[in-house]
Amino acid sequence: MVRNQKINSAERQQEQGVYSCTCCGEALFEASKKFDVGSGFPSFWAQIGANVQHKPLDTYGRERIQLLCHQCGQHLGHLFDDARTPSLVRYCINREAVALEKEREEK
Question: What is one GO cellular-component annotation here (predicted)?
Answer without folding.
Answer: cytoplasm
